[in-house]
């Protein structure tokens, strides 16, 4: 008698064959009674050959590149388990983490999914940096808090397959399709969380080759996602003051995130990326930005990196 898998782990991949074996092996160590589905989104590198050598996986090759959202959806529809976990090809699952999340989900039958913290890793070597996100994991009814910012890392999510399909799965939201889906699911369902790291997330930068590394473009899509979510029935029926508060807190958080990324780009010596991200920050908060200490610190850093500053030329940044 063939037993059904308890969890289907969906790993979409495209042209990152060097990372894929590590992701698959980490999934195997994360839980029991697993089905691991690798969805090859039209890779043109050695991914098909690498997958032929990987044991214990179901390999699905899409005829052409359809994008991350549709690749994940293909994995969901092909899955055999009642619970689905998501893992990108360059991220890692921590040992026994899936089993602990499944137990948490079993204890809360009304919950649509369970999530947890992730260890942040550098984009080149996948080594933890010491940073853990999110700092806290709220549970229960998190819809309004989630409207203010996306604190749910994709590789930490273990979801009920039925809830995913009822929410119409992922849509093409250019790198923030996960947040858009979590908002639709939490509008009508509670969630559970484990207050511990469950995965290792490779943090993007401007040269890492990850979709989410284009920060300024992604932040624009995030604003679009929030506006769409504010039109969902639950948000639309709420007092206008609550929607305004969600918008304000989202923009303030976005402003702080942009300045953080600008500072990180400066530290890496990437003046172009730092300038582009700082420009987006001041467009978000033009009055606040000109007098904000963090913004002024970024601008001083940009001036120090300007060619000719050492000999007294190049006294300003042209935005």
Describe the structure.
With 319 residues, the chain is α/β, with parallel strands linked by helices. It folds into two domains: 7-213, Spore Coat Polysaccharide Biosynthesis Protein SpsA, Chain A (Alpha-Beta Complex); 239-308. 44% of the residues lie in helices and 17% in strands. It contains 13 helices and nine strands. The protein has helices at residues 20-30, 47-53, 68-78, 97-106, 143-148, 161-166, 177-186, 215-229, 233-236, 240-267, 271-284, 286-291, 293-305; strands at 7-13, 34-40, 58-61, 83-86, 92-93, 113-121, 128-133, 158-160, 192-202. Strands 1, 2, 3, 4, 5, 6, 7, 8 and 9 form a nine-stranded mixed beta sheet that branches. Strand 1, helix 1 (20-30) and strand 2 form a beta-alpha-beta unit. Helix 7 runs parallel beside helix 8 (215-229). It is globular, with a radius of gyration of 21 Å. Residues 208-213 and 308-319 have low confidence and may be disordered.
């Amino acid at each position: 008698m063939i037993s059904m898998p308890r969890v289907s782990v969906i790993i979409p991949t495209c042209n990152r064959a060097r990372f894929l074996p590590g992701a698959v092996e980490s999934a195997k160590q994360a839980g029991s009674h697993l089905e691991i589905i690798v969805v090859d989104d039209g890779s043109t590198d050695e991914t098909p050959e690498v997958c032929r050598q990987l044991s214990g996986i179901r390999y699905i090759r899409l005829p052409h590149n359809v994008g991350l959202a549709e690749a994940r959806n293909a994995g969901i529809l092909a899955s055999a388990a009642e619970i689905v976990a998501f893992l990108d090809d360059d991220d890692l699952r921590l040992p026994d983490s899936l089993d602990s999340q499944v137990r948490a989900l079993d204890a809360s039958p009304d919950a649509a999914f369970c999530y947890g913290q992730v260890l942040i890793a550098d984009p080149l070597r996948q080594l933890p940096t010491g940073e853990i996100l999110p700092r806290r994991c709220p549970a229960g009814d998190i819809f309004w808090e989630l409207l203010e910012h996306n604190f749910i890392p994709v590789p930490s999510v273990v979801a009920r397959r039925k809830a995913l399909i009822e929410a119409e799965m992922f849509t093409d939201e250019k790198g923030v399709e996960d947040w858009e889906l979590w908002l639709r699911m939490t509008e009508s369902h509670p969630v559970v969380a484990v207050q511990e790291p469950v995965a290792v997330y490779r943090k993007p930068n401007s040269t890492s080759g990850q979709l989410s590394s284009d920060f300024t473009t992604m932040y624009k899509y995030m604003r679009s996602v929030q506006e769409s979510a504010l039109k969902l029935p639950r948000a639309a029926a709420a007092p206008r003051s609550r929607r305004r508060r969600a918008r304000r807190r989202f923009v303030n958080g976005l402003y702080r995130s942009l300045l953080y990324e600008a500072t990180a780009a400066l530290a890496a010596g990437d003046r172009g990326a730092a300038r582009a991200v700082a420009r987006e920050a001041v467009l978000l908060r033009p009055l606040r930005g000109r007098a904000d200490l963090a913004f002024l610190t970024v601008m001083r850093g940009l001036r120090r990196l300007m060619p000719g500053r050492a000999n007294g030329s190049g006294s300003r940044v042209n935005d």
